Amino acid sequence: MEFVSAGPVESETGEALAVPVFGERVWGPGAELVADRLGPWLDEFLDGQGFSGKQGEIAAVPTAGEFGFGTVFLVGVGEEVDDESLRQAAGSLARRVTKMTDVATTLHQIDLDGAADAVVEGFLLGQYRFDAHKSSGEPSKTERLRFLAPGGDDASAAATRASVVAAAVALARDLINEPAISKPPEALAARAVEIGRTVGVAVDVLAPEEIEREKLGGLMGVAMGAHNPPRLVRFTYDPDDPKAFLALVGKGIVFDSGGLSLKPPAGMETMKTDMSGAAVVFGAIQAIAALGLPIKVLGITPLTENMPGGGALRPGDVIRPRNGKTVEVLNTDAEGRLVLADGLSLASEAEPDLIVDLATLTGACKVALGLKMGGLWSNDDDAACKVKAAARRAGERFWQMPLEAEYRSMLDSPIADMKNVGERWGGAITAALFLQEFVGDVPWVHLDIAGPARWPDAEHYQSKGGSGFGVRTIIELARELAEG
Ligand code: BES
Ligand code: ZN
Ligand code: ZN
């Protein structure tokens, strides 16, 4: 999509114009002029539509040739506008105007730092579609967004930055939405290599022999029941004079059947999305490198299916992840923590300043926090604060949960160093406590995105399905770390 600066509302013409309206129908930039031109009829029309300017409302107003634009979209932005509400408003607009090739707007003129950024990001994310498997041709998308002056001057810089971010989220969404049949570990690893080549990030891929040589017993164990062999992808982005060293670890279960602890059919329907953590790492690294942020980033994604084939792990089997601690696997559906164990060990051995892992780890986290926010656990207050602040700026919600040491005994095993499941209650916490065993003393933040990795229905800038939740938080975190 193209973003261009153009003249003021009164001197431009076109198919569609989108202007903001604050709560209680207070006209925003550009809307005043529209109201002036269309006269008292407009208020009556909006009364009929029940439009007051609340966040999320959009009214399409036909102008019957009285105005230079065929349709005016009045975009409700509510009373107090911030980055996220503007992003959401732009996303709602984007979903509403997909059939219009050229849209002019004054939304970026709202008095808010980074308004143009928020508009571009929300608009691009809102126009995202996953149509790779639709045979009926590509649905239309808006080709040009015109920023009407004043305020249009910084539009192109904002558009460049926000486009990089939106492309990273779209990449993650595409990978998540892809059916498992077309994304075996080998194919995802090949994609990682391609991404690395495009943005200048070194990528090395461990095949089964290397996975075994590196003693990645968690990943090997989970992969035992799968026909498609596993891979482990390692991205290294190492710019000159880095201000910090960040390690990212993403859960990459390309399909989670539960293994021999088989899930019921309904529980499996969305399990192609169980590699969302890995997809977020792919997207975030692409963006961090494309933006040229001066931090070193190591990205680790263990990739495998969790299947119940003849060679599969049996409940009761004992495996040995890389750090040597033995694990009695009582439930093969708690597989994410097994592959993350190896990913986290590799990350901590590299001695980064901070490890962040992202994983669709537990149904328990969905129960606790619902579908629109992730859980956050950390062994380091400063690290937790940094990630929470980044998430707030990105407009992604995480809620900090306790790493409750008292619950660690739930993971005690009579025959091994630990077992892979605790009791029913507090399942997201025992999962986090399990992961903690593999990070050593390195500051670490664990993000359980089981809920928000998939958006249940399209709304504002979210489409139904893979959301890429976490990509924007990690990019914001990287920006902050790059400040030194
Ligand atoms: N991938 C699932 C978690 C999940 C569930 C993600 C629903 C998204 C939506 C994970 O591997 C899993 O199955 N976890 C089990 C753990 C249990 C066996 C201790 C769970 O949450 O039920
Ligand atoms: Zn599982
Ligand atoms: Zn899983």
What is this structure's SSE topology?
Blueprint: E1 2-6, E2 14-22, E3 26-27, H1 31-38, H2 41-49, E4 58-62, E5 69-78, H3 83-96, E6 102-105, H4 115-126, E7 144-148, H5 155-177, H6 185-199, E8 202-206, H7 208-213, H8 217-223, E9 231-237, E10 245-250, E11 252-256, H9 265-268, H10 276-290, E12 296-306, E13 317-319, E14 327-329, H11 336-349, E15 354-359, H12 363-369, E16 373-378, H13 381-394, E17 397-400, E18 418-419, H14 427-436, E19 444-448, E20 454-455, E21 465-466, H15 471-482
Parallel strand pairs: 1-7, 2-5, 2-6, 6-7, 10-12, 10-15, 11-12, 14-18, 15-19, 16-17
Antiparallel strand pairs: 2-3, 4-5, 8-9, 9-12, 13-14, 16-19, 20-21
Helix pairs in contact: 3-4, 4-5, 5-10, 6-10, 8-11, 10-15, 11-14, 13-15
The chain binds ligand BES and zinc ion (ZN) (2 copies).
Class by alpha and beta content: alpha/beta
Number of strands: 21
Number of helices: 15
Shape: elongated
Portion in beta strands: 15-25%
| Ions and ligands | ligand BES, zinc ion
* Residue runs with pLDDT of under 50 for 5 or more positions: none
Mean pLDDT: 96
Radius of gyration: 24 Å
Distance between the termini: 33 Å
Helix content estimate: 25-40%
The largest sheet, given as strand count, sense and whether it forms a barrel, is: 9 strands, mixed
Short description:
The protein is α/β, with parallel strands linked by helices and 484 residues long.
Q: Care to describe what's here?
A:
The protein has 484 residues and is of the alpha/beta class. 35% of the residues lie in helices and 22% in strands. The strands form four sheets. Strands 8, 9, 10, 11, 12, 15, 16, 17 and 19 form a nine-stranded mixed sheet that branches. Strands 1, 2, 3, 4, 5, 6 and 7 form a seven-stranded mixed sheet that branches. Strands 13-14-18 form a three-stranded mixed sheet, covered by helices on one side. α5 (155-177) packs antiparallel against α10 (276-290). The radius of gyration is 24 Å and the shape is elongated. The site of one zinc ion has 5 residues, from loops.
